[in-house]
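#onboarding

Welcome to the new folks! Below is a worked example of what a typical request in this channel looks like: someone posts a single protein sequence, and someone else replies with the predicted structure as tokens. Don't worry about understanding the tokens yet, we'll cover that in week two.

Example request:
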Amino acid sequence: MERAELQRIVAASDWVWEKWWPALRALSPEQAGRAVGGSFPSVYATTLHLVAAEWAWLERLLGRSPGAWPGPDWAPDLARLEARWREVASQRRAYFEQAEPTARVAYRPFTGNPSESRVWEIAVHFTTHTHFHRGQLAGQFRLLGLEPPSAHPIAFFRL
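Example response:
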């Protein structure tokens, strides 16, 4: 995989996020925190998982392996989660400007066991992981009686 292709895959995921943030900002705190079910109980909890996972993978790419998942105190509401995501996305763009897609990255997942992956494999993982859970967010929006954003990576690639 070439660097430009890798950057485009990450940019597509970020573009989909940009379609989601207005819908997430429109939720009341009660809607964001209401337990509606899914892998994570609420829109807030699902979004926290997504942003925390993207942060953790960026940390690993940068040579730092966090020891634990960030909890709600890391970003206590959707506004703070969006700010955290914007920090991650900005740092990640800078990283991928110079990243060698086939370079190997050594890291420790939260289990503590040493692991190693190529840069492109990590990017494919975190973008796929995010897209999977955004599908769950769509279901949670529907359970709240709301229409989720219609945003798909292929639409980015068609631009």
